[in-house]
Input
Amino acid sequence: MEKELTMFFYLVYALIIVLLGVMWYANYASVQAGEGSPLALFDPQTKAGMAIQYCVILYTLCIIPGALYWFKSKCRRLSEMEEGYEKYRQYYMYARLRASAIASAMLFSVLAYILMGGYQPMMWLAAIAAVAFVFCKPNPRKTEEDLSKKDPDSTY
Output
């Protein structure tokens, strides 16, 4: 299951990067040709553009810490379970859900970037989500650490 989670992680990350690269190149090529951006469906200065910006910003800034906190609370509950297949199955399911939630923030930011014709602040939001996504990368040591029982009196 660890390998499946790692493959899921890299597949999602690669798809987002490829999507971003293709959209950036399409926008860059048309601007260089003097045609303007073909992707700009919304002007960032209009009410619709500002509404999209605020929604994407709010979504990104809520989903990233929310997903991380939710996963941590699930791991705390899982650490109380007895060792076995079910414990690891649930852990990997929660890890995929966490990665999917953070990837959705990245995807919405890239989509807003595209719809606004390359509006740069949306790319920074995608970068924030990409960094959060990198920190969700699974590895065996982190899995064992997440699932080990914690001492309630411990400060760590």
